[in-house]
Amino acid sequence: MALTFPYYVCFLLLLVHPFLASAQTSGNISLGASLSAKNDNSSWLSPSGDFAFGFRQVVQNGFLLAIWFNKIPEQTIVWSANRNSLVPSGSTVQLTSKGLLILNDKAGRQIWTAISLGTGVTYAAMLDTGNFVLASNGSVNLWESFDEPTDTILPTQIMNQGTELIANYLETNYSNGRFKFMLQGDGNLILYTVSYPFTTSNAAYWSTQSSIPSGYQVVYNQTGYIYLIARNGTVLNPVLSNPVSAQDFYQRATIDYDGILRQYVHLKPGASSSTKWPVGWNILSFIPGNICLRIEGATGSGACGYNSYCSIGNDQRPSCQCPEGYSFVDPNDVRQGCKQDFVSQSCDLSSPETDSFSFVDMPNTDWPLSDYEYFGSSSEDWCRQACLGDCYCDVAIFRDGNCWKKKMPLSNGRMDPSTGGKALIKVRTDNSTLPAATSGPKRKDRSTLILTGSVLLGFSIVLNVLSMAVASVFFSRSKKEKEDKIQPCQSMPDMNLKSFTYEELKKATGDFQEELGSGAFGTVYKGAYTHENGKTIAVKRLDKMVAEGEQEFKTEVKVIGRTNHKNLVQLVGFCNEGQHRLLVYEYMSNGSLATFLFGDSVPNWYRRTQIAFAIARGLLYLHEECSSQIIHCDIKPQNILLDESLTPKISDFGLAKLLKTDQTRTTTALRGTKGYVAPEWFKNLPVTAKIDVYSFGILLLELICRRRNFDLEVKEQSQIVLADYAYDCYKEGKSHVLVEDEEEAVEDMKKVERFLMVAIWCIQEEPSLRPAMKKVVQMLEGAVHVPIPPDPASFIGSTD
After folding, report:
1. For 625, phi and psi rounded to 5 degrees?
2. Is there a single domain that holds both residue 729 and residue 700?
């Protein structure tokens, strides 16, 4: 697992420029200090020089802000800030005068920032433990990299409940991969496959739950023991236990890209050992013992990709391979799985092709959970014939008189002596790359066909020339007439949405009779689509066909059409006909959250907490989990709709900005809703996803307190602005006042206070202090600790 970096050039250290000399520091890093991404290994060192913090080039013109072992040739990375968003040469990291650690790309766009526990950071330091910290004058760590690990933990590091390690995608691709190791909120320590490209848990393949009670922390001590402890400090279970000398060895535990958690040691430069150790990193121990057999998720491909199989080699590492007749989709990324190298069997009953296929035997091989038919008390020959005569059958498994038919994609593939039986892989024997029905002409007919084809081809060329001439004349005379006519409905590229005609939607809405609501750009009408048994729909007609309205139409179709989440409203289709611009949504029978929350029948505390969770998850999807980051820009109760089961769904993406994967912010005119708009919009600053975090914070306060953010009918003037009033109550230790007339909430004050603290973090005036939506979700769910929030307006007027 040793990593090499061709961009590391030792002789540059001999050409020490004054700036480089200042960048290679080993003491405390002062406010205002910065580093730039370039090929000079400039970094901030720990006192011993064992660890370095700075930029590492991992691909051409792609840099990670990382921490690495500095004194060994491999310079192994143990932490990174921007694993999913490499930055180009010229990017910078700065410890600002406010104590904020901010990573910007070369254009000045903020890529990442360290969210500290509060104000008061006076310096940063790279410690000899491998921990990078932001600290106060009293040497209190207000932020540390140990609290936000990537794929590695180090001696003295602790994993709290909710902490997770996510494997690299590949050995030299540091983005989020397919596996993770986490200590859950219930105290269970688990290895999971993830629903890639998301990091949500999929199938567990190693767990401590069956043998121990609830765990509180995972501790990695300096002697090499990694163990789970209870809240009272009792050791519940060793995870990886191999004592080594911290004086002589570097240590780390990493969940590798293949899904195995391994504990490594590396002899320190100049150290000696009574045992002869191979050069580089050496594996002390690992879990699980055989990952090929451990992963059997109902969803997901398993330890290897679809249609491949996993086996354990002599080095105890899993190897992914393709069956005969199959090859890797991407040889450089074998976990993408395998594809057939032949044409599948035809299902044409008149030509069953049974003579064109045979079987390759693979002993001790299986793809569990891919069955679609099972037969007991059968023979191997019967099993073969049953699969051969079934065009759906790609593989048959025969074991102990039992026959299973399987079809692609095959998942959880493994080859191991404990599996027994054999897999019968159906392959084409004629090496055909075309279906049998398209067989070529017989040899004796080919000369005739060539002569006939030549004559027809010549005649076709003459016709094509004449046709082009006629078409040119016709087009020049009718071009203007076509421009004046209404064009038919067009389908959107890359969109799987229905294209409606204007007449269809006019009929569906009864000539736009029943109005559901209206906004700045259009009106929404209730309708029924007759082609789907009268399914109720909501049709939004854009009334202002100026440039701004047309742009909203294009934006909304593109944005919503690419999303798929239970907490986002679903776009059914659209109409783009002449001057008509209409959007067709799923119908939300319970209207908006504004009506529900501020009406006569206020939802109870439990229901409001579930609504908050759902909205937060929807925003997390938009910001981090869909293919392109989406900023909504107008989160408010009116834009949260409720379905028949009161499930909230984020709607109205008319102001959303669709960003490419290498962008994190954009600019826009001030178009949000007063009271929910983040203050940076008023300063004409670039818009980031933190705009939505601010709006969510205001909405969360409204959910907690069951009132609008701005209310002139309150008893006292100090209560008019909810954000100010709520913070004053929290600061004075009177959070209960906000829910004092609601018994259910009063009895759940711990959660009330947690939600209130999260909301205050979200509405910080300084965008970099606001947590990302992933952190918001974790804090709301109680998976991570919520630090004490500062006064939201504490940074107003300050400058770097």
Report:
1. -110, -15
2. yes
Check whether 544 is labelled as a binding-site residue: no
Beta strands (DSSP E) in 497-593 are: 498-499, 515-518, 522-529, 535-542, 571-577, 580-586
pLDDT tens for 665-705 read 444 444 445 578 888 877 777 778 899 999 999 999 999 99
Domain assignment present for residue 139? The answer is yes
Positions annotated as catalytic residues are: 634
Q: 382: domain range?
A: 309-432
Is 248 buried (19+), middle (13-18) or exposed (0-12) by CB count in 10 A?
middle
Tokens of 86: 């490499």
Domains held by the chain: number: 5
For 11, the 3-state DSSP assignment is: helix
Q: At what angle do helices 749-762 and 773-781 cross, to 10 degrees?
A: 170
Rounded CA-CA distance 629/659 in Å is 5
CA atoms within 13 A on the CB side of 564: 6
**Per the omega criterion (within 30 degrees of 0), is the bond before 409 cis?**
yes
**3-state DSSP helix/strand/coil % of the chain, to nearest 5:** 25, 30, 45
In 579-689, DSSP assigns E strands to 580-586, 630-631, 640-642, 648-650, 657-658, 665-666, 687-688
Task: Render the burial of 463-476: b for 16+ CB within 10 Å, e for the rest.
Answer: eeeeeeeeeeeeee
- pLDDT tens-digit profile of 318-340? 999 999 999 999 999 999 999 99
Rounded Cα gap, residues 755 and 638, in angstroms: 21
Strand order in the sheet with 498-499: 498-499, 571-577, 580-586, 535-542, 522-529, 515-518
Residues 6+ apart with CB under 8 A from 727: 760, 791, 792
Q: Which residues contact 134 (CB under 8 A, 6 or more apart)?
A: 95, 99, 101, 114, 116, 121, 123, 124, 141, 142, 143, 144
CATH number at residue 138: 2.90.10.10
Q: Are 126 and 67 in contact (CB under 8 A)?
A: yes
> Which distant-in-sequence residues (6+ apart) come within 8 Å of 260 by Cβ?
286, 287, 288, 291, 317, 318
Rounded to a whole number of angstroms, the CA Rg of the chain reads 31
For 136, other C-beta atoms within 10 Å of its C-beta total: 17
Phi and psi for 607 in degrees, rounded to 5?
A: -65, -40
pLDDT above 60 (res 116)? yes
Q: What is the mean pLDDT of the chain?
A: 82
Question: What predicted TM-score, i.e. pTM, was given to this entire model?
Answer: 0.57
The residue among 560, 566, 564 whose CA lies nearest residue 584 is 560
pLDDT at 712 (0 to 100):
84
Reference 172, options 12, 60, 87; nearest CA is 60
521 and 611 inside one domain: no
Helices (H), 252-317: 291-294
**Beta pairing class for 571-577 and 498-499:** parallel
Name, in order, each residue with C-beta under 8 angstroms of 385's C-beta and a sequence gap of 6 or more: none
Instruction: Check whether residue 658 and residue 744 sit in a common domain.
Output: yes
In this structure, are residues 404 and 374 in contact, taking their beta carbons and an 8 Å threshold? yes
